[in-house]
Amino acid sequence: MIRVRSSKFVxxxxxxxxxxxxxxxxxxxxxxxxxxxxxxxxxxxGETGAGNADIETPAIAGLPQWYLQSQLQSFQEGWRGQxxxxxxxxxxxxxxxxxxxxxDIESVSQYVASLDPTFPPSTLHGNAGVGAEQYxxxxxxxxxxxxxxxxxxxxxxxxxxxxxxxxxxxxxxxSGARGAHPADxxxxxxxxxxxxxxxxxxxxxxxxxxxxx
Length: 213
Fold this sequence. Notes:
Helix content is 55%, strand content 0%. The chain is mostly helical.
């Protein structure tokens, strides 16, 4: 009798574990889920999404949800974070790949977009006056007179992003570390606008962008 009762008792947790393993119900989608997922982002991007220049992680707080989603998807697809010269991208891609449950990308993007945007101080020393001419000639059509971007053209707001990060990404586009994948339509467009830019031109344009804040 004792052995019979013991066998039934042991079977209960086994059945429970089996039920839990078969439960493939996706977690709820939305802000609560996004805040939970952001816990894995905070060690690099900061609790407020303000970024960390020491480890080359940009400010992401308050960026549009559509842009955040598109970039996470780009990392997952391998359009970003594959090139040997893109060290921050190589670190970011494995993190993006972990967002593999239905609604994960949308949820964490919604949460990050809800954070108060930051406007990091300038660290570069370009010539804003010269940069204004280049910006109007090359950048304004997509990023706008105010640098607030355009969702239709998949151009993000650039006025709230670290200047060093803008420089890093312009260099990545120019070198082909970003925007070279044939499926990355908007990245290809961006790369075409950077291939003729010199290091000084990049810094001048970015210096002008800082004045649009």
